Structures are given as structure tokens and as C-alpha cells.
Amino acid sequence: MPEHQSRMSDRDPKAAKRAERQVVLLFMVSILGTIASLIFYFAFRPDGTTAGVRTSTLSLGLAMAFALLGIGLGAVHWAKALMSDHEKVDERHAIASDAETRQGAIAELTAGADDANIGRRGVLKGAMISALALFPLTIAVPLVSSVGGDWNVSKLKHTMWEPGTRLAIDPSGRPIKAADVTIGSVVHIIPDVEAAERETHEWITEKSKAIVLLVRLDPRDLKADQSPAGETWSYDGIVAFSKVCTHVGCPVALYEQQTHHLLCPCHQSTFDVADGAKVVFGPAKRPLPQLPITVDDEGYLVAQSDFHEPIGPSFWERLK
């Protein structure tokens, strides 16, 4: 074993006391972060606007970050500066130890605890226990307060797409014409709504279900151009599919032009756009739902209807 290098906190009682105060301060930061998160949770409730959601999320995130960071840094600094750091060697032996060996192990643990002066550092212990005890409130309070919320799962079966709704480019919201889409191009699509509506919290929630990826292929490359009922769901090689992966809901947005494959970046589920977005690789079990589209009198791309099946991952009341 190399020669043991003692720390300043081992040589200087003042340095040890200073390190102890630093650890206590870090645990106090965690306690204050927990208290702040509870205050922010009730003070900055989302008010239905994008700014309100942003403020609520930012304030909660920062407070919880300080609450958890204080615990982590405090524990690390305590271990580095105050706990025993003497090197020890244990010979490998059989799992079952005799009584004498077990007593020796207990004695070593007791000596390590005594060396760390845990028993004589009441303020430090109190700060650590308080921080650990209070931090779960940052998670428990929001969870408990959300009990009794909206559990209407029928909302998962429908999106805001309606017959005649124009397809608009995300995020600008500009309606798109079929003539604007060239073969091989990919466009991120959202429903066309008024600009004021796009600033509401409800719009953000509904948009997350209605996001679509629009791709134009050579019509000759389409293997599945029609719905199971025989209706045409594409327009001149333009197809639209839900961006919400049917595995766990990640956004599917990586398009391989040569293979016509859509790739989910989370778990590599791969879908064939030319064949009804069927799964060709990965953990997803269902094709991406297709949005039936056509054009209106002005040449703008519009939805024929909503998706004909729920988008995203399976859930308990899904029939297929």
C-alpha cells in the first residue's frame, strides 16, 4: 500500500470544523430548495397560457434542482473531508465467516464511525436527516394534489384534426399547399388554428397529440396508398403519419430518403413510410397511425378526418 496522505481536516481541527460547516450549509441549501419548491408549486400554478406553464415549470425545476443538488454535494463533501479515508485491505475468504471474524468486522465499522465523529456532530446529522426527510415532499405534494384530476381516457382516442382542417407548418403555423412539397422532402405539420389559440395551455396539450410528419414520395413507390376500407388517404404521393411513436411516445422524426424509413431516436423503432408506416425494426408493435389528407379548392392540404385509431403507445382501454 502507498503511504497514506492525510487531509487538512485530519491535521487541523479548524479545517475539520470549517468542512463540517460547509456540509451543513449544503444540506441547508437542499432544505431551502425543498421549501421553495412547495411555495412555487402553489404560487405559480399554470394559468392556461404558455408563459404561465413556462414559469411554473422553470420555478419548480430550479427549486428541485437545488434541493437534490444540496443533498448530493453535501454527501460527497462529507465523505471526502470528514469520513475516514484510511486504506484497508481485506483478504478474500469464504462467504461464511466465523464468529470471531464477524466481531472483528463490527469492531472495524464501529471504529470507522467513531473516527468520522458522527456522534459528536449533531448539527451536521440534523441537517442531513432534515434534508433527506424533506426532499420527498417535492415529489409527493404535486402527486397527492393531482389525485382526482382528469382521468377521461377517451381523450386519448381523438386529436384536434377535423375534416377540412388545413395542414400548417410547425412551428410557424403557415398553411401548406401540395405544390410546396417536393418529392423526398419532409415537413413537420400541426393543425392550422388562429395565432392566439396557439398561446394557450390547452393548445400545447392538444398539439402534442396532433403532431404529424408529412412526406412526399414518388407515387410509384407507395405500396400502401389506401385505407383498409379502400379509401385513398394520400394525395399524389404525399402521405402524413403521426409523429408519436407507438412504442413509448417519442417523436419519430428521422427520415431516410433512400429507404423511405422513419426512425425513432429513442429506441430505434423503424417504420416504412412507403408501406403504411409498418414496423420494420425495433420494439414498436404497431404502425404509425396515418392521417387521411387531400387538397381543398385553393390547393392547400387538408385533413379528411381525424386519425382512425388512437395515436401513440397502447393504453389500458385501447381495443387494438
TrEMBL record:
UniProt cross-references to InterPro entries, sorted A to Z: QcrA_N, Rieske_2Fe-2S, Rieske_2Fe-2S_sf, Rieske_Fe-S_prot, Rieske_Fe-S_prot_C
**What's its membrane topology?**
Multi-pass membrane protein
Q: Chief localization class?
A: membrane
Keyword entries, A-Z: 2Fe-2S, Cell membrane, Disulfide bond, Electron transport, Iron, Iron-sulfur, Membrane, Metal-binding, Oxidoreductase, Respiratory chain, Transmembrane, Transmembrane helix, Transport
Where in the cell does this protein reside? Cell membrane
Concerning CDD domains, the annotation shows: Rieske
Residues passing through the membrane, by range: 23-44, 56-79, 127-148
Q: Which family does it belong to?
A: Belongs to the Rieske iron-sulfur protein family.
Give the protein's biological function.
Iron-sulfur subunit of the cytochrome bc1 complex, an essential component of the respiratory electron transport chain required for ATP synthesis. The bc1 complex catalyzes the oxidation of menaquinol and the reduction of cytochrome c in the respiratory chain. The bc1 complex operates through a Q-cycle mechanism that couples electron transfer to generation of the proton gradient that drives ATP synthesis.
Q: What is this protein called?
A: Cytochrome bc1 complex Rieske iron-sulfur subunit
Name the species this protein comes from: Cellulosimicrobium arenosum
